Amino acid sequence: MDIKEIYSNVLLISIANGRNYYKHVREAEEETETYLADYKRHSANMYDDLPEGYSGLYFMESLARKVGSSIGEVCLLTKARKEEIILSLLKNINPIENAYCDYYDDSIEGQVEFKGMAQVFDLTDVNRVRQLFNTEESPDKIDISSFEVPYSVTCQRIIENKNAESIVSYTLYITPADNLLTRYTFDNYAVWTGNNGPIADYIDKVIDAHEKLQGIDTETPAGNGAADIYSIILLDAYRRRIICYEE
Fold this sequence. Notes:
Elements (H helix, E strand, L loop, with lengths): L2 H14 L4 H22 L11 H13 L4 H6 L2 H13 L11 E3 L5 E11 L4 H9 L13 E15 L2 E11 L13 E6 L3 H16 L12 H21 L1
Antiparallel strand pairs: 1-2, 2-3, 3-4, 4-5
């Protein structure tokens, strides 16, 4: 297994469990550095060095635990579960324009890349949640944004002509926060690649929606606004998942 896949798995589990990945990465990193410093300080002699890669293993065990998981789940996350988590995150991108609110680039022939924002809610701090719901302030003064964990989602579609056949490939990246790159982590995660399926359909529908809203397709029926197109995306993805399970 590629080490990058393990990292993308723990990120997806963090999203599924509604955890603040950025915060837990910092905590796990500090915990790892503290452990290594203590070990070195109390090491009896020069032959007590830890095995190569142990620091990374310690970090991952700490991070997995903090996001409500385990090393076993992180290593054995199934393809179906990954897609389920990703589709759940994509449902939070509403309206559909948020899927390309950062940028949309189709300047390279055969390639489209766009980037938008999604978020989950971190409600794991029970005391903070209680304070929120027990407050006497009016609802419009409650800072819900303090519970939001933002994610930047980048999608790519590349069409290549090989042997007179068009090969379409899709990739979806998730970035948990700006400048997260540290000694122990990456700052950008390729969480899914493929040629078809619900996630590929989502990318296609966003591209279609962007083109229609730009007036490229003049045959868009009246009433098919952004919200309607977004609903179609989710419905198609849901239907495809049912078909897959029935087969």
